[in-house]
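User: Fold both of these, please.

Assistant: Here is the first one.
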Amino acid sequence: MTVREANFDGLVGPTHNYAGLSWGNVASNRHARSTSNPRQAALQGLDKMKALVDLGLIQGVLAPQERPDMTTLRRLGFSGSDAEVLDKAFREDPLLLAACCSASAMWTANAATVSPGADTHDGRVHFTPANLVNKFHRSLEHEVTGRILQRVFADETHFCHHPALPAHEDFGDEGAANHTRLHDDHGRGLELFVYGRSAHRPDTPAPQRYPARQTLEASRAVARLHGLQEHNSAFIQQNPDVIDQGVFHNDVIAVGNGNVLFYHQQAFLDPHGMQDEILAKLPDAGLHFIEVSDSEVPVADAVNSYLFNTQLVTLSPGHMALIAPTECAETPSVKAYLDRLTAMSTPIREVRFMDVKQSMQNGGGPACLRLRVAMSDTELSAVNPACLMNDRLHRRLSDWVNRHYRDRLSPNDLRDPALLMESRTALDELTQILELGAVYPFQR
């Protein structure tokens, strides 16, 4: 079966702000309590989507969450009118209010894990929303995320949707940020699940400073749900030491596509064992393992530039491009390495730099912003067409952002009841543009 990869990017929400909620994410902590620009963030994301369409790639868009999350605030005991709830939450627990206003669902690499029909037991594309239990603000997302995915990929003939894993740290699941798929020219795939620790094997190495957000047990559970087998799945441990250097997800230190795995020397606990297993399970793919050494790019430079949080996309057979943030061009060690990389004999032939600075300052690069969905042409034809990016949708959504989004948002603005009404008005219109129906609590 021939499959084509589509990228579904998260549309940045109207409450995009810098609250520094993600311990272990260096960029998020560094910019905490800065003033953000939601309008610019959303437009940067839309321009990236349009740029990929212009490259001939399949590009979709996923709607943001409703924020502030009034349902959660009321569940936690704040009562009265919406304005009173926001004011009480701000005065009593401003960090909690910030969590309930987070626009972090923009990073749809954490939305779900997706297995193409070519790999699964029933031949359908399987989706499991990530429970994201390690961070409270992200643990609020999976229910609406699942609902949105079901409206975009609605045809049960081709798509199968699972609920998120149980909300317990033993099954901490961060979605596609710790999952990638390699394949050969015949479409035979191997899904790589990268985990930070094992909850049920206490002798497994674990980081000491920052949390390991993905467990082995979660990864195995998702593989079982999707009907994967031993021959088309592999479970690889991330290097605990690199997690403690700010690599909170595997996609901050490695990226794969087709027959290429591009990663840092420190990415995996057992890099030789990783290579051996992949070669044994995908022997005819002509694999390229591109390892970047510490001497070429120190981990700190890789994290600050998001060298590996790039999108590795296929433009034509044997010709791949890295979609990289402009920070990669501005970091001397990274820029020098990329110049050498594109001159090597590998499928990575070019690098295209894109400005996603508003996302980068909050801890997410180009790869964080997208969920990869590999589909056959028949499956693609069953996707909600209103969610597929083209020139017309780009113009329409850009106009929508310019009409509804603020160009400045400070932590104090999160208590403003007008922001809630602005967000709801915008999202209500968005669900009509994307033909999603009533996916938000305020619509139901």
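And the second sequence with its predicted structure:
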Amino acid sequence: MLNQHSLEEIAEIYNLLGDIKKEYKAGIKPILMQNSSKLFNNPHTIPKLKKIVVNRGLGVSAQNTNILKKNLEEFEKITGQKPVVSRAKKAIAGFKIREDMELGISVTLRGEKMYTFLTKLLFFTFAQIRDFRGLSLRSFDKAGNYTFGLKEQLIFPEVEYDEVDQVQGCTINIVLDHNSPKYRNESIDKILNGMILFKFLRFPLNDCGYYDKYDSFAEINRTWDKKRHLKRKRWSQE
């Protein structure tokens, strides 16, 4: 028999599955303002999704018209938006790369398409990954954005197995809009904001327990400072 906590979780998942944008405005924002009033006393300081960038590097293979065309069609199926071709900004003779040479494809999702893609990613795509152990917290950058890679395109429901000539992955960058006040504008604050938002959005973060032994983020900062100091000391001795 399900307990109350399980029923609440199921209700949250169904709300997110129905409409993430609506649930964020009507459910997540009021809860954050009520339960974390010291952090989010102003609704504009609550972190929110800004855009999702999906890209794939093709390298020299992008010069093959058929390969490039097939990748463009595949990305359009996956994201629901026509991708753009990424080009080299400068020539690199060692890698046989010319200036303005086609090297990959990229899609930037905003608005409804962004939320649609995120819903598919959270509730359908991750479930297709074999031996999936969750996403790492260490994939947050200093700006509080989150980047991770997927090894193959077959986990997306739009991709047919028979149509795939070569297994290729992609990189997904989730950009957040923080709007934090100046006294909470450090990297650790932005990462904390991202962790809080991802928890409410049901992101499968796997190593949250790594930080349970610390009482505060100030202690985590001190620990990482010690590690950086030890690394510098070791490098100086080599």
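DSSP finds six helices and five strands in the chain.
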